[in-house]
Design goal:
Elements: E1 14-18, H1 25-35, E2 39-41, E3 45-46, E4 61-62, H2 65-73, E5 77-83, E6 86-91, H3 92-100, E7 104-108, H4 111-119, E8 125-130, H5 134-144, H6 149-163, E9 171-174, H7 178-191, H8 199-210
Parallel strand pairs: 1-7, 1-8, 2-7, 3-4, 8-9
Antiparallel strand pairs: 3-6, 5-6
Bound molecules: guanosine-5'-monophosphate.
Residues 21, 44, 48, 79, 81, 83-84, 88-90, 108-110, 112-113 line the site of guanosine-5'-monophosphate.
């Protein structure tokens, strides 16, 4: 039996989570999905090549530029963007099907995608993950060792740009302590509450990151 129950035809929620690369977003999302029922990560389409250990139709739908452009011209994406020189997009039919089944869907997308979702007036709860510092961000990007130095530099530049959008999101969650950040996310997603968030601290760190 599927672990997803349809809740009296109640539609699922769309949860948009953005963060600069290295803010720890993927680990937090993984933990939310593994520890809770009725919530999934949307599988995006991308023209980026799979990294070691990534699988088609599980991590992403890995497609060519031609395929991506064909889908885009048919308006098959709810949102799409060029991120770190590759195209990424959320498939409209994919998320509509999941939401209609009552499944809560997380969109792990960049700030450009978030803006498109807002412009299209699609109902969503949006959360921005704030890294503890630029130094920590650099450290995490280097430790990941997934990318070349050039790619890391591009991502750092993009991180500084993305941080400027943090205040446009419904909620900001500081990821300096993994367990605290996870608790905050769960409370926002499932209780619609922000009571666990240390707003003062995250505002201060955000100001430092932007200065
Ligand atoms: P990665 O290549 O490391 O998996 O993802 C790079 C960035 O692309 C991440 O910040 C992620 O949020 C973003 N991304 C992944 N899928 C989508 C998508 O469908 N739309 C948009 N706009 N961004 C995406």
């Amino acid at each position: 039996m599927s672990r997803h129950k349809t809740l009296n035809n109640k539609k699922g929620k769309l949860i948009v989570i953005s963060a600069p690369s290295g803010a720890g977003k993927s680990s937090l999302i993984k933990a939310i999905i593994n520890n809770n029922n009725n919530i999934e990560l949307s599988i995006s389409a991308t023209t980026r090549k799979p990294r070691e250990g990534e699988n088609n139709a599980k991590d992403y739908f890995f497609i060519s530029d031609e395929e991506f452009n064909a889908l885009k011209s048919k308006d098959d994406f709810v949102e799409c963007a060029l991120v770190h020189n590759y195209q990424y997009g959320t498939l409209r039919s994919y998320i509509n099907k999941r939401i209609d089944k009552g499944i809560n869907i997380i969109l792990d997308i960049d700030v450009q995608g978030f803006e498109q979702i807002q412009e299209a007036s699609i109902d969503n709860t949006s959360i921005f993950i704030i890294p503890p510092s630029i130094e920590e961000l650099k450290k995490r990007l280097n430790i990941r060792g997934l990318d070349s130095q050039d790619v890391i530099e591009t991502r750092l530049e993009n991180a500084r740009h993305e941080l400027k959008y943090a205040n446009s999101f419904d909620f900001r969650v500081l990821n300096d302590e993994f367990d605290d950040a996870l608790k905050s996310l769960v409370s926002i997603i499932f209780d619609g509450s922000s009571k666990d968030i240390d707003t003062e601290k995250s505002t201060k760190i955000l100001q430092e990151l932007l200065s």
